[in-house]
Amino acid sequence: MTFLFTDIEGSTRLLHELGAAQYAVALAEHRQVLRKAFTEHGGVEVDTQGDAFFVAFPTASGALASARDASAALADGPIHVRIGVHTGEPLLTGEGYVGRDVHKAARIAAAGHGGQVVVSDATRLAAGVDLRSLGAHRLKDLAAPEQLWQLGEGMFPPLKSLNQTNLPIQPSPLVGRQRELEQGGRLLREHRLVTLVGAGGSGKTRLALQLASQAVEAFPQGVWWVPLQGLRDAELVESTIASVLGTKADLIDHLAGRRLLLLLDNFEHLIGAANVVAAILAGTKHVHLLVTSREPLRIAGESVEAIEPLPNDDAVALFLARAVQVEPLAAVDEICRRLDGLPLAIELAAARTALLAPDQLLARLDQRLSLLTGGRRDAPDRQRTLRATIEWSHDLLGEAEQQLFRRLAVFDGSFDTKAAEDVCDAGLDGLQSLLERSLLRRWGFGRLAMLETIREYANERLDASGEAEERRHRHALHFLALAERAAPKLVGRGQADWLELLEQEYPNLRAALAWSVPRRADANGPRLAGALTTFWAHRGHFKEGRGWLAAVLTAGAASDDPTYRMVLWDAGLLASLQGDWADSKRLSEECRRLCDKRGDAKFGARSRLVLARIAAAEGDHEHASALLAEAVVLAREADDPSTGAVASFNLGYGALSAGHYERARRDLEAALERFIELDNSYFIARSLAALGAVALHERRTDDAVTLLRRSLEVSRPLGDRDDMAWAIQLMGIARSVSDPQRAARLLGGAEALRDELGLTLQGAERDLHDRALVALDGHATAAAWAAGRALLPEQAADEALAL
Asked: Would you call 141 helix, strand, or coil by DSSP?
């Protein structure tokens, strides 16, 4: 069956505007129109509640035809109806249709806007029609994201879904904690900083994720989870938050004026970064923070909620939900009491019921708790009990499993089975055994991780084993190999996938850097830093990347070492991308000097590319052109076609900026051909956009639109928002005369994206932008511009591609 739900948008406002009598007439007319559309296409009215309809159709195509007719008939009237359509297999009861698919159809309708028809993927496939993609959306009370589509071409605001969140979907319901949820929800409404404080393993993260998910609708700009357990440097907290938010701009500037919630998870080892939290509170008005930590942040405005052990009834419920064997129940009650109601300890104990009955567990627990009260004498009792529980779980492992358990502590964050095999000599049976015993957890598709508290214990075991040096060295080699395998892939086809892989492995890459860089006699640190520079540049990790590169240079590699020259160039490049021209010039000139002295044509050419960028920023275009010409010659000598192609691109863009359009077109077309040969997707997109700008300057609008559409089609999968902002901006300029409303939306969307990234219009684009503003003058485009600013980047790109 296919289900269709309708609802009137803004019914209360309409009643107030029209008055009761006129609204009643409009409501009756709307019902007549809808019922006519339903019956003509085989729909059966299941239920009517207030001004909403629930209708069932035998076919998906009939439901869509009905929705199309109804929307068209109501388009010019005062009442605008949102419609949701979904196909599924319901349960038919005496009360009517019920079940998950009925619920899903209602949620789909609730996400739409007046006049909009939102369709599920199941209905689209059943009807066999082409619809406009709205992307994947998380809907209230539905666990998995839904791919949604729109019937018709109308333009509407973003769906009212839970999309603006990265909260992980939990595999099982939260057990208990109703009091904490009510208290925490109240505190989040009344305070801008709430810190959940409790012992390791007390369930702070799980409770915080539940609180955050329940607060999504209160924060229009989203709820964002920032996991900090893999971070070791408090200086990186700010950049980590910015990375999660997807911005390269100043964090406070990005957050100003936004209404969102940040969940900073596992903060206790980064207390030195409490000033970052204080700065966010001071610099914004509507940003709220939810923090989990083992101790308060102790800053102004903080509201602290202590997370106590579970009451025994809830603890027993948790044990029963996780256990394999649950008899006798009296023993379960006693186990939970002895474990102080700590969720992690209870889950570990419940996992053991695969081997031992509850009464056998209780006997062992008695023995372990009497013998293993360990930990620091000044530690809280609950923390000492948790440590004893972990130690007891460890002692239940066989010798081989204990060895694997401690070796896996080398991983920071999550890891895949291949890494575990390479670094720890792991077997699948051993990993499965640790997983079943809750000493490992599944972490996304095909990945595993340890809870941080368990990992700390495993690290102690590893340090005491005598094999820590070997395992950490193997860990560093494994991730060096990954980074060096990825480095050449970051500029070609598949770049987006490789960038995502490195982002996923970044905690481990950080750990590998921390191990390798201080070992001055080891070239692995410089090699790893060099391999990660393109990743740092694309993902905006400028500050951190520069820090690692500076540490490598401080370690004092020999100046005649090619790796040293590579690191000099990398450091100069990142400094230039941050606009630190003085440091970039110092590093790049030193790189050029050493390269010229040693005959290193490859990095001699690349250093000149950076120096040309600096010269152009300083307004010395003649010197910049000379440096680029030298770079072309050296790149040819070094057989480095990529650098030569980039130099050609920069020459073409310089000619564009100077107004020499014919020369710019010639150089940019030559660069494009070379980038296509090199399969360098990033610069293919940039070259196409630059050629689109040339076409706009020459008033070849149709050519410009074709080039810009191709640029977006190439750049969008890469996730590089700089290029997306550029192409969307130029596409808006291209339509400023023929379609002022669409142009204003695109220009507004591009402006919002530039603001988010901290970008400014360059000279060539500034002239085109001013020309577009003149074309828009006299048209009522303010509302369209504002609507464009509210678009998500992907939605703005969709609009640009639809031209």
From this structure: coil
Average pLDDT rounded to a whole number, residues 160-179 = 76
Q: How far apart are CA 112 and CA 121, in angstroms?
A: 15
Query: Contact at 8 Å (CB) between 666 and 651?
Result: no
Structure tokens given for 649? 């691109």
β-bridge partners, 132: 150
Residue among 254, 239, 246, 255 at smallest CA distance from 289? 255
Q: How confident is the model at residue 369 (pLDDT cuts 50, 70, 90)?
A: very low
For CA atoms 659, 663, 667, 669, give the dihedral sign: positive
In the chain, the amino acid numbered 159 is: L
Element (H, E) at 432: helix 428-436
pLDDT at 164 over 70: no
DSSP 8-state class, residue 165: B
Q: Decide: helix, strand or coil at residue 196.
A: strand
Question: Span 743-771, mean pLDDT?
Answer: 80
For residue 166, give the nearest of 241, 250, 105 by alpha carbon.
241
**For the whole model, what pTM was predicted?**
0.63
Spatial CB neighbours of 459, under 8 Å, sequence gap ≥ 6:
406, 409
How high does pLDDT run on average in the chain? 85
Reduce the DSSP state of residue 91 to 3 states and report it: strand
Q: What share of the chain is helix, strand, coil (3-state, %, to 5)?
A: 65, 10, 25
Q: Judge whether residue 231 has pLDDT over 60.
A: yes
Residue reference for tokens 């020369």: 663
- HSE, CB side, 13 Å, CA atoms: give it for residue 75: 10
- Please list, in sequence order, all residues whose beta carbon lies within 8 angstroms of the beta carbon of residue 685, skipping any fewer than 6 positions away: 711, 712, 714, 715, 718, 720, 723, 727
H helix or E strand, kind and range, residue 265: strand 261-265
**Whole-number Å distance between alpha carbons of 248 and 362:** 54
Tokens of 310: 């579970």
Using omega within 30 degrees of 0 as the cis cutoff, is the peptide bond preceding 717 cis? no
CA–CA dist 749, 764 (Å, integer)? 19
Q: Burial level of 362, CB count in 10 A (0-12/13-18/19+)?
A: buried
For 352, 729, 746, 796, the CA distances from 743, given in Å and listed in that order, are 63, 9, 5, 11
Token pair listed for 568: 């000099």
